[in-house]
Design a protein that fits this description.
about 280 residues, 9 helices, mainly alpha
Length: about 280
């Protein structure tokens, strides 16, 4: 067992988890063509996801699962190896049902809390991405520290790397889509959009977790260990592709929602139509 004794190792792990999340946030922010959000606001949203939603989600998930069954804790969960062929029903229920509903609800609360700062439709997905990326950063850091304690610095960095190109992006993307729906309910007067996009975020989260746990699911279905080994790699690659596809879709949604983007623009921010030119007067 390795002990976390070096400040240098701790800082390396923090930077390894933080820099990708901030890079993704910069990437998302640049999708807005007009009136980009100030970094001070985005960092408050980021910190809400990191220090608020993550901790509360962990507590609630443990409480909910413990009401029905005892779940043994194992790194790096809940994705990428948390589930295995011997996992209990409670563990599968946590990863595929409880975590998506609880975590997406808490991240959504951050978006709703900053409603007064929203100015237009494109702000919703940007706010959601900031909260989700903050959540993904801190969750990844916690799992990285756990892997460090179990296997050393290389193990911690390896886990952080895998999650930084998958789970972090997923958290940012799913909450960004909720933000899009919430902003639509505010600016486009679509009252059902908030709930519909929350369920979309939950579905994205659950689908990602299922892909990341594909090897365990295949084993539970009765396939051989050899096949489940291939399924682990296929699931990992599919989860990474899913995460990158999701964040790219979010960037497209932001661009189309932003004024003067070519997509859905709220009438409040749409310029008046140009007047037709008058025919020349013949003398």
């Amino acid at each position: 067992m390795a002990d976390l004794t070096g400040v240098e190792d701790f800082l390396i792990l923090v930077l390894a988890a933080l820099l990708p999340a901030l890079t993704y946030l910069l990437w998302v922010r640049q999708s807005e063509r007009l009136g980009r959000e100030p970094w001070s606001l985005l960092m408050r949203l980021f910190l809400f996801g990191a220090l608020g939603a993550t901790v509360v989600a962990a507590i609630l998930e443990v409480i909910i699962v413990d009401l029905g069954t005892a779940v043994s804790q194992k790194y790096p969960g809940p994705e990428f190896g948390f589930l295995n062929g011997n996992s209990t029903f409670g563990t599968f229920f946590l990863v595929l049902v409880v975590a998506p509903f609880v975590e997406e609800a808490l991240k959504a609360a951050g978006v709703v809390q900053y409603r007064p700062a929203m100015r237009r439709l494109a702000d919703g997905p940007v706010f959601g991405a900031a909260v989700g990326l903050g959540f993904g950063f801190f969750e990844t850091l916690l799992y990285g520290l756990g892997a460090f304690l179990a296997g050393g610095l290389v193990a911690g960095l390896a886990l952080i790397l895998v999650r930084s190109i998958s789970s972090v992006l997923l958290h940012g993307s799913s909450t960004a889509m909720f933000g899009r729906g919430y902003a639509s309910s505010v600016f486009e007067r679509r009252p059902g959009a908030t709930g519909a996009y929350y369920l979309l975020a939950v579905g994205m989260h659950a689908s990602f977790n299922a892909l990341a746990s594909l090897g365990a699911i295949v084993t539970v279905l009765g396939f051989s260990n050899g096949i489940s080994g291939y399924a682990d790699w296929i699931g990992l690659l599919a989860a990474i592709a899913f995460a990158f596809g999701a964040i790219e879709h979010v960037r497209t949604v932001i661009t189309r929602s932003d004024f003067p983007g070519a997509g859905a623009v709220h009438p409040r921010f749409r310029p008046p139509p140009a007047r037709a030119a008058s025919p020349p007067v013949r003398k």
